[in-house]
Design goal:
With 448 residues, the protein is mainly α. It is built from 20 helices and no strands. The protein has a single domain, classed as Hydantoin permease. The protein is globular and about 55 Å long.
Length: 448
Amino acid sequence: MTTPSRDSSSHGGDTEQGSRPQGLVRYVKALGPGVVTGASDDDPSGIATYAQTGATYNTAALWTVPVTLPLMMAVQEVCDRTALATGETLGTLARKKFTRHTRIVIGVLLVALLVANVVNIGADTLAVGKGMEMLGAGPAFVWNLVVGAGLSFVLLKGSFEVIEKVFKWLCLALFAYVAVLFFTQVNWGMVLTGLLGFQVRWEFAYWSLVAAIFGTTISPYLFFWQSGHRVEELRDEDRDGDDAEGLRSRGRRAAVTKQNMARLDVFVGMAFSVLIMFAIVVATGATLGQDGKTVESASDAAQALEPVAGPLAKYLFALGFIGSGILAIPVLASSGSIGLAGLLRKPWGLEDEPHKAPAFYWLVIGGTLLGTALSLFFQNPIQLLVLSATINAVAAAPFLVVVMLISRDRRLMGRYTNGKLSTVLGWLTVTVMSVLGIVGLAGMATGT
């Protein structure tokens, strides 16, 4: 995202009115890290989990849509605000906030997150390979290797901006699920009762899948990505690209405008993510769910698009799978690395050259290549994708506690600490993810 440069002599004063984008253009330009986070949230892991939900339980789990939206908005806004207020990532703020022993615990959690992200990268890489295979472009395992090597090269060249611009447009293919809602016989009465929670099932397999839904929508890697991407954006506003000027260093009017635009970005991104979630669950429920069909492959999930795309359904689905996967893989590889680099006081930056941030790039490229290697040992991406969502559900609560403790610290945040609504929703999310994390662990232990 490009924003007008500020007069350095005013140290964050208000931008001249004549140089500021106006009207709709101004709001479109505000869309950046939040929208990318929302699009990344609808990665193949999310698509597979939602498709599995709709096909297996039809509309019975739709209540998760109105429940997850405010929780997602609250959590991602808090993560975003920590970066906005301070110009620093969650990892850096954790180093400043906590004692040595607590930092060690957070470091262990971040290493665990890196491992979980490798599983997710493997699942997404496999999904991209299957997408290319569905397009008739050759065997999936070949494309697994091409994608892993290609993304590693692009990241080494410091060109994430290119990936972001190109592939977030491919994610628009996911809107085909929205179109399905107008071309199939959706029972909107069932949709309404599902949204209101009147179809809840009291069986363990159902709640295991609910845990996966929450895990793929409120994923811990998104916390660190949102923070890191916002800091990158703040760096880009600086003429030298080295400093990230937080809200506390800006004039009050400029700070209020920046915060409002950032909130718009986050809320639009989360709304987009949940809209796609809703559409996939309802579309697969209205098609595959009518026959009680289990989604066991990417081709099965693509069948939900047949009412609107006909014979082209698998190609349309493949484009969405490929676009969302290629966008999400760098996010997954970078998020935990950004957090660990900040915690260890190591330089980082997706636009930096590798020799300026060697530890960061070793982690990013290593995670990408390990995930690529993992993808070669699996044939069916759906099961691995749902497993990665469950792992995220287990990992979310500890990181949410860290985020909430940082964001309420007035020494770090100044006047930008959490308000009452953010506090209530944030700690409610901690509670929900703690319970569902236990359910997810039980599900993995029993193979449910």
